[in-house]
Amino acid sequence: MRNIFVQGFCCLLLSTTTMPTAFAADKTAHNYCQLAPVRSDALDFPSKHAWDLFLMLNHPAVDREIERGRADCARPIGDPGSTTVWESWRNAGKIGVQGEVFLKDGVEPPDWNDTTIPDEKPGQVPKEAITRVQAFSGSDRQPIDPRQISFHDWALIDKAKPQFSPGDGIFEGGGAFGETRLNRETFEFIKRNCLWSKDGLRRYAQAYQDGKKPLIVFPPGAMEVKAAWIDLEREKVPKEKWNTFYSADYKGKKYGLMTLHVITKDIPNWFWASFHHKDQLSFGDKLEPGIETPDEFGQPSALKGTVWENYVLGGTQIEFDSSTGAPTMLSDAHVEKGFVRSSCITCHSTAVISPDDTKSVASQAAAMCILTPTVPEFDLDPKGCREIIGDKYFMKDDKLVAERGAPLPEWYMKNDKLFFIQTDFLYSLPQRAQKEMNSPPKRCVW
Ligand code: HEC
After folding, report:
1. Which key words tag this protein in UniProt (predicted)?
2. What is the per-residue pLDDT across 35-48, written as a single tens digit (0 to 9) for each?
3. What is the reported pTM?
4. CB–CB of 216/186 below 8 Å?
């Protein structure tokens, strides 16, 4: 709300200030960008912070051929036909699909703004949606200079490259993982520290052991998103509801954005937030609801009348445990299907690398056993979990002695030494990096 007020205020200032004639044409150009999120809000007002991030990430982007990750301030959020900022970030790819970061044969990815690696069709705000923003899509939205031409306009002049990668982010009905994208700070840290290949990760873990490298800590501006899309037809979403989704067309099919997980390095162990479509439980198979936290801020009014008003905040997470020592939890019905009794931060704390490529006891399975020892979808039962995390965590009747939010130091140790190095909560590194087939750049050998 404050954002709207401030925005209204600056527009008032703009229109009453006398402008030099050279800028006369800009007089009617609105700046539709919201204020940047305030870092300290991550701890002080987590729900507000989550919504501020939502506004920033889902703002229309300028075409990625011009610049990746830049908001098009000449367009309002939810402008029909627009594509979001996060979709102009780099696609992490998935196992078997190289994406734009962890490339085949472990080669170094090109610079941030390079767009030579194909990334398919992006999502768009549905054009048919009757939205409030259409009301001001008149002359005040005329592109002012070529750098402000929106993705959609480029598409019209036949310049746009498709981005949406089907298979990456489409929810397949089995708790599938989604499309992951990295912002510039995250991507450049990976490049700077040679963390884009399996061998690079192994070398880094060894360099840590040898005292040549510090632990992996991403910079304060780092962010990642994970999006889960559904095939609207297959999930039996009634046709009249299709326009309530941010959607992507691909090969004659329409996909709707169901869930958006957002993480930012606004706090040392990351700020965790989950958004989803408001009707997510009413389509397709019956789903167990995710474990959510209350939205203490409420949807920003800037989203009213746009496709984004159909999305709700599933919750935020900022710590492993509550003030009483109970583990905090957060999950989404679609993405964490089958293991909703889970914790983003706990599971992600088990993302590790090691000098010899071995896996630690700390694995997703361990993180899940410690919260939910019965997950048939993942072949986990109390007996198996006793083997993974040890008998001492169980009472006689297979109940956990205590659910654990915080990871255990022993998960990361070997011979009493820290051996399994965390990738700072990011799973895309150990999961997606590929084997190196040629020698790495000299700067990557320590
Ligand atoms: C049981 C373990 C587990 C839980 C619980 C979990 N994740 Fe993940 N997450 C993963 C794995 C594994 C990946 C990597 C696979 C991928 O990128 O698709 C991942 C990927 C991600 C990514 C992409 C960035 C990256 O490199 O890790 C984001 C963002 C993310 N998860 C957010 C969340 C949020 C928010 C929650 C809680 C609502 C959550 N995750 C819960 C295991 C988990």
Report:
1. Signal
2. 899 999 999 999 99
3. 0.85
4. no
